[in-house]
Amino acid sequence: MGKELILALGLVLVVEGLGPMLIPSKWRDMVSEMSQLPDATLRRIGGCLVVAGVVIAYMMWPSK
């Protein structure tokens, strides 16, 4: 399981790095706009991302 976790972390880093690498000015604008959002909105966005990640992980988890 350790190798899969490290692989997942690596893939997250790749996806997270694409924005600043390919379109840095638009990425900076997006981050600036997100910093102006209320805390409740950011929590809602974060919660949706966590739920989506859990669903994807559950669907991809190898069955025994």
Describe the structure using short key phrases.
3 helices, 86% helix, 64 residues, mainly alpha
Tell me what you see in this structure.
This protein is an all-alpha fold and 64 residues long. The chain is 86% helix and 0% strand. It has 3 helices and no strands. Helix 1 packs across helix 2. It is flat. The chain starts with a helix and ends with a helix.
Shape: flat
State the helix count: 3
Mean pLDDT, to the nearest integer, reads: 92
End-to-end span in angstroms?
14 Å
Largest sheet: none
Helix content: over 70%
Uncertain segments are none
Indicate the radius of gyration in whole angstroms. Answer: 15 Å
The oligomeric status of these chains comes to single chain
Structural class: mainly alpha
**How much of the sequence is in beta strands?**
under 5%
Task: Provide the succession of SSEs.
Answer: HHH
